[in-house]
Amino acid sequence: MKRFQCSGCGQEVHFDNSRCLQCGADLGVHPIEWRMIALAPDASGVMGVDAGAGRWSLCQNATHDTCNWLVAPGEGPLCLSCRHNRTIPDLGIPANLALWKAIELAKRQLFYALIRWGLPLDGLLEGGLTFEFAADTVGPDGTVVRMMTGHRDGTISINIEEADDAVRERIRTEMGEPYRTLLGHFRHEVGHYYWDRLVRDGGRLEDFRAIFGDETADYGAALQRHYQNGAPENWSGQFISAYAAAHPWEDFAETWSHYLHIVDSLETAYAYGMSVTAPLGVDGPPSVELDFQPYEATELSRIIEAWVPFTIALNSINRSMGQRDFYPFVMSGPVMEKLEFVHRLIKG
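Now predict its structure.
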């Protein structure tokens, strides 16, 4: 992700900031220009900014402190991200507001990438990208009905308990997933959506099957085998994660998710002008300079050549802090081929 600064005073601010701590200005993200703009009230007290042919105003969900994006003139009360919501948590339950706020931040980080690449969205249209955020419910007989996290026909469902760090850590341990995050969920599930849009409906099925395998294999049975027996012993030679080995659909979604992880993280390093010494014992340039915009890179090789040394350095920093590795995954040859497929799909 890029760096942001307050347009009023120039102070560096973060993507989720709604106020500048330097000058005190209310802030809003312009989701086309990707600038953090200092706002002012109009005659009716609504915060916004005059830009171009009209006034950009804060998303309606700013009243809940769950969004800081601006809405273009005449586009209604919700921003480019929030207008894709079909269901939000029950705000009559006080604890849900904090969970929803965390969920919306992760979703805006996802949309940052989708909008940057110009990927199709079509929210709330038939088959368009939509979101449902809700909790488990209890039936009249006391039976708990689980809100399952997943994707179906364009709708991504997220159980709001995933925004609770303690709950997510418990699930992460139980499921043996080294990288279970809210943002990771969004990137993975949206991968299923874009498989439908760009692979199935985009005439790329044969190319997909040549690399990922036959997706017509029984999906339910494949997941049951995975949860009963785990991944094959040698999964890391073929897949980016253990879960990717479950089924070609999951392999694609995991690969898609990792491609987004890589590009967005590299853009952050690029924005800060970072460089890193090449790994010891590796032939080639003594250091890696991020002198290109990762979102605009035409060749995957350039992205990976920068990514691998950064992950080694950042894994080492995390270990020095007593934390898990920043990126505990292996880039095997088959994984690189799959990442190349996703790269070309997005660039196309």
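The first helix runs from residue 94 to 117.
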